[in-house]
Amino acid sequence: MSKLAILSLGNGNCEQGVQSVTLQVWQNNNILLTKSVGTLPPAPDIPQLYTN
Question: Which distant-in-sequence residues (6+ apart) come within 8 Å of 15 by Cβ?
Fold first, then answer.
């Protein structure tokens, strides 16, 4: 029993946030267990954290 998580990010960036985020969790690559839709808030510190 394997699971696959797919996170899809729509338009946006770290300064303004992302207005469309979708998470899908699949079992055995053919059974959709859950799907959630939401947004991500701005996080302007992420690029510097990544660089460090």
Answer: 42, 44
